């Protein structure tokens, strides 16, 4: 059974991918430094995969520790999630984002190469498209970065493509996520952002559960169906299953690829809000405020390439995304833990 190293394994997308990989028959070794996640995830992963999870508390930028771990366990491939991912924060700390996101990627590639493994799935983002010139967005669309976070993802892809050019033994899948939302159907794991959520769905979830007073809608004068921003929301379990399909593609020797992981369909902020009210039975208080700097009116994927080359497509609709998000949030009103518990672990 191939052993897959998962970096950022206790994070939102990492934890859901852990469950999907085990369900698909892979053996998984998770690593994380808990910079943006909680060790409280681990017993829940254990429950969901039916065994003690293989995990090591490591920062991927600690090259020595990572190389030793990869060599000790004999890793066959890696899925690389570990990165800082807040657009706004990246504008305030650009060098920290470049060092952590690009340095961590190089550290991982070195550890894999030293161990004779050259299969890597890279967590990229639709943010590499900048402000899209046409919709839906295809993988061959113009790329541009509008913030240091997006630049770190764009350069991560370029670094891996150059690595392949120099050493064709590398097989790399760059997966460009659109807007991951929702939670595992068990309600045991889900999105638990630190502080005030930047993203729409976790903020809406916290209003529904009573942690936040009301949602501010960032602008209602866009050229969209109802004036509010349109995005391609994808269920996190569909996203996780997309990683399983990408790993199978690499293990089959079917070659490197870059693929959008989206549904191909856009929903507005107000459509998301109404769907969440249906799912939760709660009214979501909201008011319209000014546009958020850097936002685009609409962004959604052409998802055809992943369907053709990976045999994968998103299956869960917006109502399922909201229902699973609400189950997680209502079962865990304060997320995985209080701040005190988090500090105690660090
Ligand atoms: C979605 C829509 C907002 C919050 C971001 C990152 C991107 C990727 C996914 C990492 C927009 C509106 C939001 C709120 C609102 N992350 N909104 N009130 O901006 O599409 O993408 O997350 O890869 O890199 O940029 O997602 O959820 O922040 O916003 O009205 O309180 O919801 O204006 O139209 P976004 P989002």
TrEMBL record:
Q: Which organism is it from?
A: Rivibacter subsaxonicus
Q: How does it assemble?
A: Homodimer.
**Pathway stated in the Swiss-Prot or TrEMBL entry:** Carbohydrate metabolism; galactose metabolism
Q: What is the name of this protein? A: UDP-glucose 4-epimerase
**Can you state which reaction this protein catalyses?**
UDP-alpha-D-glucose = UDP-alpha-D-galactose
> What cofactor is this protein dependent on?
NAD(+)
Matches recorded under Gene3D superfamilies: NAD(P)-binding Rossmann-like Domain (3.40.50.720), UDP-galactose 4-epimerase, domain 1 (3.90.25.10)
Q: Which family does it belong to?
A: Belongs to the NAD(P)-dependent epimerase/dehydratase family.
EC no. given is 5.1.3.2
Q: Give the lineage.
A: Bacteria, Pseudomonadati, Pseudomonadota, Betaproteobacteria, Burkholderiales
Give the keywords, sorted: Carbohydrate metabolism, Galactose metabolism, Isomerase, NAD
Instruction: Specify whether Ribosomal protein is a keyword of the entry.
Output: no
**Record-linked Pfam families:** Epimerase
Q: List the GO biological process terms.
A: galactose metabolic process
> Could you tell me which PANTHER family the record lists for this protein?
UDP-GLUCOSE 4-EPIMERASE (PTHR43725:SF47)
Q: Indicate the transmembrane segments per the record.
A: none
Class of enzymatic activity (EC top level): isomerase
A GO cellular-component term linked to this record: cytosol
Q: InterPro entries, from UniProt?
A: Epimerase_deHydtase (IPR001509), NAD(P)-bd_dom_sf (IPR036291), UDP_G4E (IPR005886)
The entry lists its GO molecular-function terms as: UDP-glucose 4-epimerase activity
Domain NAD-dependent epimerase/dehydratase: residue ranges: 4-261
């Amino acid at each position: 059974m191939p052993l897959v190293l998962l970096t950022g394994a206790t994070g939102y997308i990492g934890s859901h991918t852990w469950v999907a990989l085990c369900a698909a028959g892979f053996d998984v070794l998770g690593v994380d430094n808990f910079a943006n996640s909680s060790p409280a995830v681990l017993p829940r992963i254990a429950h969901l995969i039916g065994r003690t999870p293989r995990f090591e508390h490591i920062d991927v930028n600690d090259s020595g520790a990572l190389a030793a771990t990869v060599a000790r366990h004999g890793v066959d491939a890696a899925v690389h999630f570990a990165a800082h991912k807040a657009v706004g924060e990246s504008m305030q700390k650009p060098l920290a984002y470049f060092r952590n996101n690009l340095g961590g990627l190089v550290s991982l590639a070195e550890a894999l190469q030293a161990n004779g493994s050259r299969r890597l799935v890279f967590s990229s983002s639709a943010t590499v498209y900048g402000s899209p010139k046409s919709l839906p967005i295809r993988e061959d669309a113009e790329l541009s970065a509008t913030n240091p976070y997006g630049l770190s993802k764009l350069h991560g892809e370029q670094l891996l493509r150059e690595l392949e050019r120099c050493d064709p033994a590398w097989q790399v899948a760059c997966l460009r996520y659109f807007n991951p939302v929702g939670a595992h159907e068990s309600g045991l794991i889900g999105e638990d952002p630190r502080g005030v959520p930047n993203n729409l769905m976790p903020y809406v979830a916290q209003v529904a559960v009573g942690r936040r007073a009301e949602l501010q809608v960032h602008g209602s004068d866009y050229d969209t169906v109802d004036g509010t921003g349109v995005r391609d929301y994808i269920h996190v379990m569909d996203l996780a299953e997309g990683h399983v399909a990408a790993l199978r593609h690499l293990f089959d020797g079917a070659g490197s690829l870059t693929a959008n992981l989206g549904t191909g369909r856009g929903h507005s902020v107000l459509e998301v809000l109404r769907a969440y009210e249906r799912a939760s039975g709660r009214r979501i208080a909201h008011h319209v405020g000014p546009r958020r700097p850097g936002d685009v009116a609409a962004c959604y994927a052409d998802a055809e390439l992943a369907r053709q080359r990976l045999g994968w497509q998103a299956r869960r609709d917006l109502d399922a995304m909201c229902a699973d998000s609400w189950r997680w949030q209502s079962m865990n009103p304060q997320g995985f833990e209080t701040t005190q518990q988090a500090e105690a672990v660090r």
